[in-house]
Amino acid sequence: MPRDVDNNIVYVRARVPKDIHLQFKIAALKAGKDMDKIINELILSWLKERGDQLDHY
């Protein structure tokens, strides 16, 4: 069951090796952050580096 009932939210699917997923999950827990939040931050950072970031974020 989806956590968000926001029509502005979409799901992004990515295939990653199990060991990377586990390391990411552990690091997120240690940082006290949700994996979704970190992924959003990483995407926005990458877009900003490229100069492709949307104005409203």
Please tell me about this protein's structure.
The protein is an all-alpha fold. The protein has one domain. It has two helices and no strands. It is 53% helix and 0% strand.
For the secondary structure, the number of strands is 0
* Sequence of secondary-structure elements: HH
* Helical content (DSSP H or I, runs of 4+): 40-55%
Overall average pLDDT: 88
The rounded distance between the terminal residues' Cα atoms is 27 Å
User: Based on CA inertia axes, which overall geometry fits?
Assistant: globular
Provide a count of the helices: 2
Beta-strand residue percentage: under 5%
Radius of gyration: 13 Å
Helix/strand class: mainly alpha
Major beta-sheet overview: none
Short description:
With about 55 residues, the protein is mainly α. It has helices at about 20-30, 35-50. The longest helix has 16 residues, at about 35-50.
